[in-house]
Write a structure and sequence with these properties.
The protein has 580 residues and is of the alpha+beta class. 33% of the residues lie in helices and 20% in strands. The protein has three domains: 6-242, Phosphatase 2c, domain 1 (4-Layer Sandwich); 258-352, Phosphorylase Kinase, domain 1; 356-493 and 515-532, Transferase(Phosphotransferase), domain 1. The strands form six sheets. A six-stranded antiparallel beta sheet has the order 13-14-15-16-18-17, covered by helices on one side. It has a five-stranded antiparallel beta sheet with strand order 1-12-11-6-7. A five-stranded antiparallel beta sheet has the order 2-3-4-5-10.
């Protein structure tokens, strides 16, 4: 019987003598129970030390470790370990960086060191930033080596500061390396609360002579305390007990060696144990099929790439990336990407099958619409978009055809083909914006200028959909479909929604208009702000521009009139949203 990867490990993460006793460290070990994941992904060990002076070090270290482990095991099997780690850590870094700079962070910085070891096949892959450390003790020479290098600078003999940390900058200068391993080799991951207070030769002596168990890591902790450590202490010690007989294939090029499935799969054909039931959708870029798992009897939607792009490397990379993006987005209002339980023999991915109708068909069937139901649909789309934005992803192709309403009324965003992930774009080329692949009627015209409007681009699409739901038309008319230049877009004028649907209140129309403004300075910055103004009248939208009069009686008149109309429109809002 073939050998499998086996590892014994012990860990400790304690506050030590630090005052106040807040542990900014976080450490974790993950050994998959699933044999396929163990073989294809391996084992992860990680230590992070949050920067206490930043204010949110504890949150940063925990998020970095937990998200790295969770997202690593969601990456496609066709990605190399280095590609997985760099992609994941780049997006985690950007998330922490933006949290530090977003409104409401109260000046807190989400900064942390990060050191992770991925043991897969006969190789240990390490990722590192900051001054936590990864040590390696070979069974053959019994000499302790430090695989990582500290990203810090000494100010005095007793003081130093970090020069790199995760969350410190929007660009992540990450160290990556590999170490060939053998049976009996040992690893140590530690925060500076340990290795700054226990000399290298003492660490080596301890690792050479003591077993890998809880008592060993506790002894290391006690040694650090007795030597004066006043910091948090994190320790992971791991021994390689067994290795696969041959290393698992691991290459950046592997994704291109998975064959494309046939363009047309007939009913009854089987692919990796999934039986084709019918075709759901087909285009020049991809096909979507309803399939049944032969073992579990579960039904899924299977997306396969078009053979038209069999030699297109960027297309293949984007298709493989779709699966990972979909697995990262967790929301009741985003279609779930399903990780297959069997190894793939072809390029495809699985999603939950949604039985229902697309939003474009719903709009055609519900004119004039029910305001109450329409607002509820917009709210669910906004929640789905928020899940993308929380993961540093922009949908870029939000349109009614990419929104499904299931038979229970749940609304879900589908399709990941145009999703833009800032961290991934940075790794490819930080200075070049990859144009959106969206649909002209619903895509932000700013994309035509070669700029990425980010979240505001999805706001534009959502506001366009909301306008169409209530009017059956587009906010700038049908000509928007034909225009291809910035000059043409500048000639367009917003058409008030009330011209198509006279019951729409002025405050509601002004919220729609602000959502589709071409000028980013005038548009909503977030989907929640847009939805809030649709749901509740914005007082600024309830009054006309005041007259150019300086007398106090005139100003008082307009103030009283504005107050009166505010009350009227609040009443209208209640009636408007209660209509079923």
């Amino acid at each position: 019987m073939a050998e499998t990867l086996k590892l014994s490990a012990a860990s400790l993460c304690e506050t030590g003598r630090k005052q106040p006793k807040i542990n900014e460290d976080f450490a974790a070990i993950h050994i998959p129970e699933d044999p396929h994941l163990l073989r294809s992904k391996g084992i992860v060990l990680a230590v992070a030390d949050g920067v206490s002076s930043a204010g949110a070090g504890r949150e940063a270290s925990e998020q970095a470790v937990k998200r790295f482990i969770q997202e690593y095991y969601q990456t496609p099997d066709t990605w190399s370990v280095s590609h997985c780690g760099e992609n994941i850590l780049s997006t985690i870094n950007l998330r922490l960086y933006r949290r530090s700079h977003e409104y409401g962070s109260e000046g807190k910085g989400y900064l942390s060191t990060f050191s992770a070891l991925v043991i897969k096949g006969q190789t240990a892959h390490f990722f590192h930033i900051g001054d936590s450390r990864i040590y390696y003790l070979s069974e053959q020479d019994r000499v302790l080596k430090c695989l990582s290098r500290d990203h810090s600078r000494k100010v005095t003999e007793s003081q130093s500061f970090l020069t790199r940390a995760i969350g410190m900058d929007n660009h992540l200068p990450l160290d990556y390396g590999q170490q060939a391993i053998g049976k009996g080799d040992r690893f140590l991951l530690s925060s500076d609360g340990l290795h700054d207070f226990v000399a290298h030769q003492d660490l080596q002596a301890s690792l050479k002579n003591k077993p890998c168990d809880r008592s060993h890591v506790c002894a290391l902790f006690d040694q650090a305390l007795s030597n004066g450590s006043d910091d948090n202490v994190s320790v992971i010690v791991a021994d390689i007990e067994c290795l696969p007989e041959s290393p698992f294939e691991d290459s950046n090029e592997k994704s291109k060696r998975l064959p494309f499935p046939p363009d047309s799969l007939a009913k009854g054909v089987q692919l990796d144990g999934y039986i084709i039931e019918k075709e759901l959708f087909s285009s020049s870029r991809s096909q979507l099929y309803l399939v049944k798992d032969k073992e579990s009897k579960n039904r899924y939607a299977m997306k396969i790439p078009s053979r038209n792009f069999e030699d297109d490397e960027s297309y293949i990379e984007r298709f493989v990336q779709e699966e990972w993006i979909g697995q990262r987005i967790k929301s009741d209002h985003v279609v779930k990407v399903i990780r297959p339980q069997r190894q793939k023999t072809a390029l495809y991915y699985l999603m939950e099958y949604i039985e229902g109708q697309s939003l474009d068909k719903w709009i055609n069937d519900h004119q004039p619409p029910s305001p109450k139901r329409s607002i509820a649909i917009i709210e669910q789309i906004a929640k789905g978009l928020q899940a993308f934005h929380d993961n540093e992803a922009i949908h870029q192709d939000l349109k009614p055809a990419n929104v499904m309403i299931d038979i229970e009324g749940r609304v879900l965003i589908v399709d990941f083909g145009s999703v833009y992930v800032a961290g991934l774009a940075e790794l490819r080329c930080p200075d070049i914006f990859e144009a959106a692949l969206g649909t002209a009627s619903y895509s932000d015209p700013i994309y035509l200028l070669g700029r990425n409007p980010g979240i505001a681009g999805d706001v534009y699409s959502l506001a366009t959909i909301a306008y169409e739901m209530f009017t059956g038309q587009l906010p700038y008319g049908p000509a928007v479909d034909e225009y291809t230049s910035a000059a043409q877009y500048h000639r367009l004028s917003y058409i008030p929604a009330s011209e198509h649907n006279p019951v729409i209140p002025i405050w509601f129309d002004r919220a729609l208009r602000r959502g589709v403004e071409f000028d980013l300075e005038d548009r909503y910055r977030t989907v929640s702000d847009f939805y809030q103004d649709l749901r509740n009248p914005n007082p600024d939208f309830l009054r006309e521009d005041p007259p150019s009069q300086s007398n106090s009686s005139g100003l008082l008149f307009w103030k009283l009139l504005s107050g009166f109309w505010f009350g009227v429109f609040v009443l209208l809002l209640y009636l408007f949203t209660q209509v079923s």
